[in-house]
Amino acid sequence: MARTSDELFDVVDAHDQVLRQAPRREVHAHGWLHRAVHVLVFNRAGQVFLQKRSMRKDMSPGLWDSSCSGHLDAGEDYDAAAWRELQEEIGLKLPQPPARWRRIEACEDTGQEFVWVYRVESEGPFTLCPDEIERGEWIAPDELNRRIAVRPQDYCSAFRLIWGNIRA
Question: Among candidates 109, 106, 124, 110, which has minimal Cα distance to 48?
């Protein structure tokens, strides 16, 4: 499902406590702290599934990113958002929300988003949302490290930060 600039987000403080709600466009325009999730899907071979963001995206179009990611809607919790994003972006339906894996503090690289990262195991196949994703690819961690080292500009800054944190 395509999202719009009229979506409402929770604006949060430095401790990730909700202050108020505001439209997406205002949150991003003012650089207010808000919330997001990233999910990394790994297969049995240890490869991670990455998505290449659609050129229609308003932020980071055409860049490689986590298996799926997205903002929390106003009033939504992290786990529900991860579960929803998996279904919306790659068509992966889980019987329950995935378990939290790592937390990333809001910073410039995340676009001022507090992020919970989730790890899921699945072999696919996936049904990619064309409004969100141009294509996807399974990649071995060592090859991903090499590609990021050679062409970091091809990857979303939040994904580079997340990947750096999980491989450290």
Answer: 124
